[in-house]
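Researcher: Following up on the earlier apo prediction. This time include the ligand. It's magnesium ion, with the SMILES given after the sequence.
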Amino acid sequence: MLSSIKLKFVFVYFLLVFIAMSIVGMFIIDNLEEHQIENVTNNMVDLVETLIGTSSYIADDDWIENREGIQNTIASGLVDSTESLYVIYDGEVPIIIASSSKGYEEIVGKEALHQTFIDPTIVLDAFTGNKGESIVKELNDDTVNKHLAYPVYSNVGKIKGVIYMTSNLENVYETVEDSKSILTNATVLALIITIFLGYLIATSITIPIRDVTKKAEKMAMGDFDQYVDVKSDDEIGQLAGMFNHLTKKLKETIQEMDLERSKLNTIFQYMAEGVIAINIYGSIIHVNPIAMEILRINEEDLLNGKTIDLKSLNLNNINYGNVSSLEGTELLSLDTQVYKIKYAPYKNESEIIGGLIIVLQDITQEHKLDNMRKEFVANVSHELKTPITTIKSYTETLLENDIDKDLEKNFLTVINSESDRMARLVRDLLQLSNIDYKKTTWNKNEISINNMINGIIQKLEFSIKEKEHNVVLNIQESVPNLIGDNDGIEQVLLNVISNAIKYTENGGIIEVSAYNKENDIVIKVKDNGIGIPKKDLDRIFERFYRVEKGRSREMGGTGLGLSIAEEIIAAHNGTIELESDFGEGTEITVILPIV
Ligand SMILES: Nc1ncnc2c1ncn2[C@@H]1O[C@H](COP(=O)(O)OP(=O)(O)OP(=O)(O)O)[C@@H](O)[C@H]1O
Ligand SMILES: [Mg+2]
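Model: Understood. Below is the ligand-bound prediction.
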């Protein structure tokens, strides 16, 4: 089938050649006819002029006298069968005095202007001195003849008559007809060649265009490996070249976009924050694995077009009619975790708000730290306030009242012990702060654990005896010395052992053991005291954390001992762990590297 461009091309070519050939044909035929008739006329004029110039009878002014001579002259084969000659004498009326036709006798003597074979207008024209000419379609035999009336002058310059000649134009028209058929044939041939050539040219144009179109179609379907052959340097070749250039550019751009998308996708998939994009109806458009985990969304939910209830994310004031309500930050507690929810609108291609992007940032740790900080400040304030209140009220009583010596001493003892307690608290806080800001310098020396533990037991002998505890020392003899800060390690062990003494009912058993395990020294302090409830175990190393605040405080504790111990042990690259059964007892294990 002809593709439309081919059809158009061939049609336009056809039309062009057809019109050109028709115009040229018409022009040629017209000119040819005119030229042929002019030739015939010239021949007739030549013949008549020759006749006038050569015939003495015609030259003589008295044509009536010479009528026979004239008749003989013109009938003597001057003209052929398709031509006729008449001599018209200008008597009273123009009269035919001689004729070349066979039955001349019947014509001679007749009035010229009344004869059907004579065109009277040109005869009259000739009598005025002009050369009369006309083309006449004869009524009797349907032939077309050229008529010529040529004036003949007398010796005195008067027109004495007219030589009238007719010549059949059949040959002329035959020639014209022949030429017409030749031209028609030529036109048909030219049109056939045109169609053929037009088809070839159109094909040579459409093949590369089709090639480009086909490849463009494939590109539209996502196959970008499409290149066309550039076969020429013309416009089609340039089109093909440009197509290849575009393909290359497009491929590069798509590759770049793919790379960008894959980068963004990787970021989206692996970022620590959960990200979810929803449309204005709440349907999920995008969600990353973290957000899916946080919001408990599975693949099936996505396939089912799950919607997100904004209220479940604490976004209660979202109103798509009010842009300022679409951006902000909220806090959300889900189970044990705390999330910071940041949300902002996104726009679609038509610059209309398409929905919201919600980012979920897990701030549980920060939240916890923040709470701890607040708790810490509250704790410090509280711990300082209690002794200050006590000291203040005791000193006021002492100052205002006259009290006896014993009571005074009693009061001063309380003031003293509360001041000690404050001093201890401040010392502990200072120590923690120094550790936090890495200001503490550790003086690392060789330490004999055996000596250290024995020293501590001696220091605590009073309270051990007071509580009637039974302390069992189980220190391996070969336990090597370790390198560490003497005061720091002693502080840790002193706290751990005094905790065991403090938090064990009277008459308890406290077992302190130390042994060497590979490159570490393991020190265990085990008691059969009150123990720690399971729920408190996780927090026992936190600053100020005490199981029973009141009771522990009574015992002089601030709840900083274990947190300081943990920091000191960590600074020595060791570990400290606590195991406890509530009501059964507690075991602390400190592991320190020897060097
Ligand atoms: N051996 C133990 N048995 C039972 N409870 C313990 C034991 N050791 C510690 N605890 C609990 O852990 C809490 C924290 O101990 P930590 O040593 O940090 O503070 P404290 O002894 O109260 O005060 P501080 O040591 O600062 O004087 C204690 O208040 C206590 O409730
Ligand atoms: Mg303690």
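Model: The mean pLDDT is 90.
Researcher: Noted. I'll compare it with the apo version next.
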